[in-house]
User: Which sequence fits this backbone?
């Protein structure tokens, strides 16, 4: 059906990335160097924050923020069940427990009223996810956190370049964390970035990412300020290499160009799928400036999870990438066992989850490719409509 394979995602790599990678390789400085420092400054500036701490993944960044804030056993963190599993895993990493709340069916972010209702004596933080890069309610989460003297942690791994009411994502909480996996707006191959205005928090995260070395180690223009073999706390090897950072620097220099390309692809989809009788398209608040992480549609409420899965399988048979973004976290086997969660606890998230379809989305996508995807999607939905229903 497609004229050639259309992948779910594809990174946008130019000659600038290749040049900076070669320069870094030839420099002989492959870790804890000027590229990492430059990348940190570029991302922090984009988020409107004073400090950036580069790490090897968004997951690591969330882990370090929670640990630096002293969140641990006996504490609860309010978060969403409709996200990539890492947003909850990081809570478990520090010995705390996620307190899930259901989502809004339009924005797919946590319902602020349910966040408010979930606050209890063990609540220490709200970990809010900009689902698929949608920043809706971030200001409300910040207000709720301030009212109850809780910490707001912003999982903006899917939202680099997005803003809400003129405020950049990464800037709403005590700290924000971006991710740079190859399907993100920009990529470093693997990588993440903590952004914050809190100098002490940034210093603690730098220490923890670097085997627990003293606060301030390596933060003076990349120059060590203490012994390499002195370790003041239990830490991790969560550093980002200079090669990864070089990719990030190049991508950040091209960020506006990249975001415009992604907006173009999103508009192509909207123009072709708007008004489709069997689909729900992304709902974006007019006060949001989206950077478009993915393009996820939903089948109408009457469709089942099995029918959605057959549509995805049909697209893949015709060499069109598609994904089920996201299975509910609280229904993952180890969460059900560990947290005692199960079906029916968060009905909106569960209903949405069984009907989502992530369509191919990448910067270089052509109009012909978009047409092929939309035509194939229509055919697969049509086949489900013709099939006998149980």
Assistant:
């Amino acid at each position: 059906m497609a004229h050639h394979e259309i992948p779910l995602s594809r990174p946008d790599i130019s000659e600038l990335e290749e040049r900076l990678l070669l320069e870094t390789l030839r420099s002989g400085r492959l870790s804890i160097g000027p590229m990492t420092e430059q990348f940190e400054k570029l991302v922090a500036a984009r988020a409107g924050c004073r400090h950036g701490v580069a790490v090897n993944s968004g997951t690591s960044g969330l882990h370090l923020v929670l640990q630096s804030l002293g969140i641990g056993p006996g504490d609860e963190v309010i978060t969403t069940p409709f996200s990539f599993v890492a947003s909850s895993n990081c809570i478990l990493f520090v010995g705390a427990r996620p307190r899930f709340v259901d989502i809004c069916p339009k924005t797919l972010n946590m319902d602020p009223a349910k966040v408010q209702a979930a606050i209890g004596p063990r609540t220490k933080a709200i970990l809010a996810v900009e689902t698929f890069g949608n920043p809706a309610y971030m200001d409300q989460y910040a207000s709720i956190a301030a009212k109850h003297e809780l910490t707001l942690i912003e999982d903006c791994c899917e939202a680099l370049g997005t803003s809400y009411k003129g405020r950049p994502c990464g800037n709403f909480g005590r700290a924000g964390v971006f991710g740079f996996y190859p399907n993100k707006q920009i990529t470093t191959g693997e990588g993440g970035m903590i952004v914050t205005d809190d100098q002490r928090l940034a210093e603690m995260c730098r220490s923890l990412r670097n085997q627990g070395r003293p606060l301030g180690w390596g933060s003076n223009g990349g120059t060590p300020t203490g012994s390499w073999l002195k370790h003041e706390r239990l830490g991790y090897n969560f550093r980002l290499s200079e090669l990864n950072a070089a990719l990030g620097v190049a991508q950040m220099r091209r960020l506006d160009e990249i975001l415009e390309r992604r907006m173009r692809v999103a508009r192509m989809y909207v123009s072709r799928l708007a008004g489709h009788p069997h689909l729900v398209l992304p709902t974006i608040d007019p006060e949001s400036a989206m950077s478009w992480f993915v393009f996820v549609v939903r089948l109408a409420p009457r469709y089942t999870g099995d029918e959605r899965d057959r549509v995805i399988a049909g697209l893949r048979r015709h060499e069109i990438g598609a994904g089920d973004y996201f299975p509910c976290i609280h229904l993952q086997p180890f969460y059900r066992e560990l947290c005692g969660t199960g079906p029916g606890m968060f009905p909106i998230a569960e209903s949405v989850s069984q009907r989502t379809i992530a369509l191919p989305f990448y910067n270089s996508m052509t109009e012909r490719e978009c047409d092929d995807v939309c035509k194939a999607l229509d055919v697969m939905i049509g086949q489900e409509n013709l099939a006998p229903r149980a």
User: Anything to note?
Assistant: The chain has two domains: 15-102+109-253, 256-386. The radius of gyration is 21 Å.
